[in-house]
Design goal:
Layout (H helix, E strand, L loop, with lengths): L1 E2 L3 H12 L9 E2 L2 H11 L3 E4 L8 H11 L4 E6 L4 H9 L4 E4 L4 H12 L7 H12 L3 H11 L3 H11 L4 H8 L3 H15 L4 H11 L1
Parallel strand pairs: 1-2, 1-3, 3-4, 4-5
Length: 208
Amino acid sequence: MLVDDQIILAEGIKSVLETGGDITVVGVAGDGVQAVEMAERERPDVVLMDIRMPNMNGVAATKKIKEILPDCKIIILTTFDDSDYILSAINVGACGYLLKDIGSTALIDAIHNAYKGDTILPSQIAKKITEAAMMVSSDREIKLKRAFGLSDREAGIAMMILEGFTNRQIASALKLSDGTARNYISTIYLKLDVENRTAAIAKIKEVL
């Protein structure tokens, strides 16, 4: 399903996607409100979602669609690479963030990969996330390091856990393998003396 207030652009994307033969566009919505209604009706596997739209923006629409269809993969497709948009979209359930200057082949590949469960974050977007994570106030990381004996990298990842990043998103943002990210997170849990993410977040909040 495509969501974009520039309908001519959306129709162009639809034509490109349907030339491959294995992607069917079930609908085109012009704003977030229409997107939520259409998603509930059509139940798409993947949604390409614009971010700035009238009536309801892409972040709010993503959140609502994920509440209705938890397994739906939503990729933000926009001209804006603002870190606040990126983080907000990912935090409400988007599995990827692409810019509209992407080529048609890369877009089709991204849809296939998202459908398979991959996180879609091109290098320039991953860099934005990394920069945003690094801007977290250093005194909070110092508190974590002192309270739990965390290394610099562990303190940074702990802050990302607090911000709602999944293991895979942490790996993508910091250019780590999934296994390395899991190892860091396991070590953090051990140092915090907790067994899961919810308990870790609660303990981090106690210190901050």
